[in-house]
Design a protein that fits this description.
This protein is an alpha/beta fold. The chain contains 8 helices and 8 strands, in the order αβββαβαβαβααβαβα.
Length: 287
Amino acid sequence: MLRDISKFFSVLFLVLLIFFSACQKEEEPQLDVLQAKEIIDLSYGDHPRHKMDVFLPENRSMENTRLLIWIHGGAWVDGDKGEFVNFKPWFEAVQENYAYVSLNYRLFDAFRGIDKFPAQEEDIIRAMNFIKSKLSEWQVSEQVVLSGGSAGGHLALLHSYKHNEDGLVKVAAAVFPPTELLTVGAVNPVIDLLMRQIIGSPQSNRQQYLDASPVNYVNSQSVPTTFFHGDADNVVPIAQSYLLEDTLKAFGVPFYREYYPGQGHGFTDATYRDMIAQIERFISEQL
């Protein structure tokens, strides 16, 4: 009898052990899946314009999620990071597993004469340092693409060639960018006047113009670059991109360029979509 009771409790103990082991296994916490996240108006400095919008995809990782940073245009006197909202769906249509950041920076105030260049250049340096410090927290990789249109394209190229000592930027992409500021206003008196206000007279401030011109910082180690321009652009002459192309060729820097017939300073939706597809193709070839 005692043997039967002992055997009964042994079996019961074994059944209960298996049962509770199964329950514990079912209740083991699952690995957290990173959700998509938007961070709007994140501050990267102490000025009201030191803001960025951050768009993080789900299931991102520090190994595989690339980061594309967009700098808005507006002739260094206007514009807003919200411009990227128009392009974001087109980027997402051709890109997988990308995070995006859209930047604001200080604008030149023509009425008060404040925040002249290089305030904008300094803000991009500050923003890029901030972004670098956040990559781990955001769980995105160091495969960074720096891009922008018009004045934003100028700032993207200038930073990529002049201030990329840490190698954070892997590819630069620019849309109708000013690349050599001494000549950017040669065919447009309004642009010439604007440059004189933002930097000063080309005669007395020549070095400042040279310091602010991306083509002057291209060398054999410069990042691969893709850029786009319309041949009917009457704001930033297409000659600015011709000069960039010649300079990149001279130093053997990988590049892809597209010159769109009949397009001005601002493309049609179809052209922008083609451009974005070409940007992604170039990135994929380089990274």
